[in-house]
Amino acid sequence: MTTIAVVTAGLSQPSSTRLLADKLASAVSSTLPDVEIEVIELRDLAIDVTKNMLTGFPSPALRAAIDKVTTADGLIAVTPVFTASYSGLFKSFFDVLDQKALDGMPVLIGATGGTERHSLVLDFALRPLFAYLRAEPVATAVYAASSDWASPGDLDTRASRAGREFAARLSSSPIVPVNSGFVPFEQLLGTGE
């Protein structure tokens, strides 16, 4: 069985961020058979995340969330846009993860905001964050503005495409991490001892 962790950083309840996360998870599960979805609502862990940043020790609830993310086969990560970037809670959660915890993990990224003008957050904030963590975001990311919810046809199409790409990535062979050890140039040329 394939396990997908869904991290959503919406602050309100109900949250358009959670709605987008659910839409993306549904798009993946409709394409990929035998999938288990584990949703992590960061709003419920906000105090735990802050305490972990101050002390370096996760609470049991935060440890469980971290374990769900780091042991999953793939990650769907969705954040609201605040001041032209991801939310502080979203970033703080990923800051408490071990830097190598998402190495090679497929990620489907999404964001929500008031207007379409914030859609670049996907490429200028989220992709660099996950590149730093050495995760592997799929090509299609999904941004949902307030207007997308009034007539969700185009949003559904984008979510479906992203879900298919993510499912295809999950069903392919796992990537074997490259040995990061130094290899002398002479050895590469076959002239070394």
Outline:
Residues 3-149 form the NADPH-dependent FMN reductase-like domain. The chain has 193 residues and is α/β, with parallel strands linked by helices.
Question: Could you explain how this protein is built, in words?
Answer:
- The chain is an alpha/beta fold.
- It has one domain (2-189): 3-Layer(aba) Sandwich (Rossmann fold), CATH 3.40.50.360.
- The protein has eight helices and seven strands, in the order E-H-E-H-H-E-E-H-E-H-E-E-H-H-H.
- It has helices at residues 16-31, 46-55, 60-71, 88-96, 121-132, 146-150, 153-171, 185-189, and strands at residues 2-8, 35-41, 74-82, 85-86, 106-113, 136-137, 142-145.
- Strands 1, 2, 3, 4, 5, 6 and 7 form a seven-stranded mixed sheet that branches.
- Helix 1 (16-31) crosses helix 7.
- The N and C termini lie far apart (47 Å).
- Mean pLDDT is 91; it is low at 173-180.
Question: What are the key terms here?
Answer:
alpha/beta, Rossmann fold, seven-stranded mixed β-sheet, oxidoreductase
CATH homologous superfamily designation: Flavodoxin domain
Q: Strand percentage, roughly?
A: 15-25%
Q: How far apart are the first and last residues' alpha carbons, in Å?
A: 47 Å
CATH architecture: 3-Layer(aba) Sandwich
CATH topology: Rossmann fold
Structure class: alpha/beta
Give, in order, the helices and strands.
Answer: EHEHHEEHEHEEHHH
Question: What is the average per-residue confidence, as pLDDT, rounded to a whole number?
Answer: 91
Radius of gyration: 18 Å
Specify the CATH class. Alpha Beta
If helices are DSSP runs of H or I spanning 4 or more residues, what is the number of helices?
A: 8
